[in-house]
Fold each of these.
Amino acid sequence: MSDEESYEYEYDDDEDEQMGGDGGSDEEEFDYTDDDQSNHDEGEVALENAYYNAKGLRETDLTGAEEAFLGVITLEQGELAKESGGEDTHGTKFGPWSYKSTKQLIKLHLASNNTSKAMEQYNQLLLCVAGGVVSPN
């Protein structure tokens, strides 16, 4: 085959009519996704972005990184509350991004020699694990 060859495809309207089509319509039917699913996906993307933005702050601004990781936890708890029908979970429901953020907070506090805050975050990490957020692996 050379680059100069061109192919021309023909489409016969009679075949479309035989297959039950409407003949001349070039419109295709699309199956649109549910808006709830796209909102869930947007929430997941926002959580992931917030986590990695916070992780990027670790190198330059420890206080800003701490606030950002706490914001990820709050954001995820809000998302989980929405999914559960808006019931008030009083900050006891955790997801995978809360687990990861809590782990990073422990590392931040240990790096800054703040063992009391590290222990507080470690207790929260244990709550995440007890809640079944992470698998045993």
Amino acid sequence: LTGCIAQPLIGCLDLTRHTAEGFRNASITGDERHRVRLPRMLYGAERVIRPYSQQDAELKALLVSIDPSLNTLALVDCVWDPAGVSVAVVSDSLFLHISRSQRKLLLKVQLRDIAEIEPRELGQAVALNLHH
């Protein structure tokens, strides 16, 4: 008769203990998890996902490390300087110029504020004429 009462009670206590251990283990490993690869970039105004590009993921990581608000940026195109020190980025709404070596945002302009883009220095530079 004691076994009929003790066995279910012991089973419930074991269940509670194992559940608590599971939660504890999940919280420990949750803090220790790490990404296998960087988050992917989104593309264009539609924020399309394309096949994974390590180079674009590294660009996104650089942008977010400089300005966390750029996490949702959708890339249209980018051009690195020949030395790979700085990059000009056109997103769905912004024109950015970033220095990788200084980890600094050099220029951030809304596309709607740009009136004209003039090529300069044999195509190696541009001048942005803004709306007044």
Amino acid sequence: PGVRYPPPTHPSQMPKNVTPGGRGGSKKKSTSRSAKAGLQFPVGRVHRHLKLGRYAERIGAGAPVYMAAVLEYLAAEVLELAGNAARDNKKSRIIPRHVTLAVRNDEELNKLLSGVTVAQGGVLPNIHSVLLPKKGKKSE
């Protein structure tokens, strides 16, 4: 009998107490791709940066998941070793010096980060054997 208007389609037009999805359908809670992969690193952000970086015309769905997992593993590895270096120096906070000590004392990380300079990191303590004082025979 009355004029029928089309139902509101945009979320801002919807009444506050009504969930979208037809006849009282429950709205499914969205799950992040990081949570699906069991990661802490953001898969969506990695995907965005891969696309914006123009590394390839197209980026597959699995690539950012794999890359986020690799980045998370490397970060955890460096933090673990830097935390150990901080504990060895009786400190409760990791500072750049601890990161440098951790990376340079680990053979594989040192090779991976050979061209990297850590700001305020310093160098490994090392004195060349030629510069050390000679151990001469006892003179009486």
